[in-house]
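User: two proteins, same treatment. go.

Assistant:
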Amino acid sequence: MALIDNVRRALLRAFPGAEVRLRRKPANRVGGSLVWEGFDTQMQIDRQVQLRQAIGAALSPDQQPLVSFILTLTPDEEAILAEQ
């Protein structure tokens, strides 16, 4: 199974109802964005900790470093970015 599918499945399991947008990056990496209402009251560092915990629980140690930057946003933050 492809890494991108494993990451998507892990994120949807850890963040129910989230919108997950992933892309393949150079060197077989995966990156993208995760938009979830549950981030509404969380600081960015806490969001990233949750994200890394979800990835760590779902992917093998050799796959984890292949997950590049994933931006964590609330729906409101995403809407603001879309306006720019």
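Protein 2:
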Amino acid sequence: MISDATLRFRGVILAIVVLAAAASVLCAFGCGGAVEPPAVDADELPLPLPVDATASPERIITFAPHITETVFALGKGALVVAVSDFCDFPPAVEDLDRVGGWHNPDLEKVTRLSPTLVIVQGEHAKVTQLARRRDFELLRLDMDSLDTIREGIRTVGERLDCSEAAETLIAEFDAGLDAVRAAVASRSRVPVLILTGRQLRDMTRFH
């Protein structure tokens, strides 16, 4: 039987691969001449719906699979009201609203959901502009390496007041990495390239 800790570790460690796959798909669309979605003026979007005073004060939208998995792994999944189109773990996200992705954020739906906190990966101009105009908090993470994954987990833990859970998750993350290293220690190394961004620069340097 796979433990909850193992599932949480697996979700976080595989997040980079999910990001890379999503980035490749988006890049392929761009290279194929797909039409850019029309620009949306945040001022023309409807005002946020009033938030029920009896509801949780936090309403979180996560814009990347690894961010969603981190929030759930920290025990704060009940605060998430919407996720990106690419989020598929844990199973609880299947019933949540979808708000597009990095390339095509649904700004109208974000506005209607009245989030108090939106968490994104890296710079996101469209969502940043919306946050300024609609006055919700925007948290940017850069979880694209082993070190920044740890930093991102701590940042989310501090923001959601669950720093102890964050340190526990980091410890499980490191233990999982150690287990993988031990399992492959006797095998020869092979070159591996993992792309975590949307822009492909000079690939000749990898030859």
